[in-house]
Amino acid sequence: MVRAMQIDGKPWRTIWRNQSGGIGIIDQTRLPHAFETLTLRTLDDAAVAIRTMQVRGAPLIGAAAAYGLALGLTEDATDLGLERAHRRLIETRPTAVNLRWALGRVVDAVCALPPEVRVATAFAEADALAEEDVAINAAIGRFGAELIKEIAGRKPGQVVNILTHCNAGWLATVDWGTATAPIYQAFAAGIPLHVFVDETRPRNQGAFLTAWELGRAGVPHTVIADNAGGHFMQHGMVDLAIVGTDRTTRTGDVCNKIGTYLKALAANDCGVPFYVALPSSTIDWTLTDGRDIPIEERSGAEVTHIAGRTKDGAIATVQLTPDGSKVANPGFDVTPARLVTGLITERGIAPATEQGLLRLFPERARPKG
């Protein structure tokens, strides 16, 4: 399958198997100022990469966890080793449901097998999961691109302006991205568009990652402060917002990077369509209320400090806040379904309701009686 992202003319994915048996990743903590890759060789390597956000984004976390479980089985393929690897990985990030889903899928594939065939089976399942992620995101892109095409048809000769929040791009998945997949496909189809990129404090995934990948793809974009989105919507400068999600309830509540809720409120007030792009693996069919989603509390250092490039090209970290100030740093917030215009999935676009999702995924209906 064609790859969405090219770096200096070379097609890339965010995770791959090396000939040496390790798992290659792009170290996203080094972007945008350095493009570096790492090889994961052990269970602990994979767990650290997920926990420290060298890999991040719900779909990519799932793929990395699947490969991490396979690496764990190379160390110990017994039932005890399988349990240990699963426990080690499930504890790395609490919010993204793809982590639990991917681990469960690999465990189901190997648990009934004898230890001597578990490693090969686990890697094969992780490979299949990664390939499916690419196909799913490409399908999300096709459905989402139709929305952009419709808007372009209503304003011929003008640019379609899209607002994003955080990074739900190629870097958050195996390829294509979720929220960016429609953008890439519409741009490739020749639709004139421009993206307002929220900086997404405190980790700045918009300013660091989304802007970097859009720039590499040649997509026109402007980085804006998180608090500027409402202003641009008020002045009619945003045609639609598309964001990603780390977990979505069966009733359409959406958990995404902190600040998403405020963008949805502004979009609702200004009459701007607010869409969420997601693979079905990100739907938590066990939850009906977004308030039950566990919200990761991240290090206060993400708020008090920031890293950047100095005039001489060096990367430096500086402190922003006064000594002694307390910090709260929830990594995510929940946008109620009532503020979501639609959910863009690999099977089509659904209203953000249980009924809407079940029309696309009828196999998830609860048994009657």
The rounded Rg comes to: 20 Å
DSSP strand count: 18
Largest sheet: spatial strand order? 8-7-6-9-12-17-18
Q: Which spans have pLDDT < 50 for at least 5 consecutive residues?
A: none
Mean pLDDT: 95
**Helicity, as a percent range:** 25-40%
Per CATH, the superfamily of the largest domain is Translation initiation factor eif-2b, domain 2
The number of helical segments is: 11
The CATH top-level class label of the largest domain = Alpha Beta
Protein name: Methylthioribose-1-phosphate isomerase
GO biological process, one term: L-methionine salvage from methylthioadenosine
Family: Belongs to the EIF-2B alpha/beta/delta subunits family. MtnA subfamily.
Binding site for substrate: 56-58, 93, 205, 256-257
Overview of the structural elements:
The protein has 369 residues and is α/β, with parallel strands linked by helices. It folds into two domains: 5-132, Four Helix Bundle (Hemerythrin (Met), subunit A) (Up-down Bundle); 156-364, Rossmann fold. The protein is 39% helix and 19% strand. The protein has helices at residues 43-51, 58-75, 79-90, 97-110, 115-154, 180-188, 205-217, 229-234, 260-270, 301-304, 354-360, and strands spanning 5-7, 10-12, 15-17, 23-26, 37-40, 160-164, 193-198, 221-224, 240-243, 247-249, 254-257, 274-277, 283-284, 305-309, 315-319, 332-335, 342-345, 348-350. Helix 2 (58-75) packs antiparallel against helix 5 (115-154). The radius of gyration is 20 Å and the shape is globular. The mean pLDDT is 95. The active site is at residue 246. It catalyses: 5-deoxy-alpha-D-ribose 1-phosphate = 5-deoxy-D-ribulose 1-phosphate; 5-(methylsulfanyl)-alpha-D-ribose 1-phosphate = 5-(methylsulfanyl)-D-ribulose 1-phosphate. It holds the Pfam family IF-2B. The record marks 166 as: Transition state stabilizer.
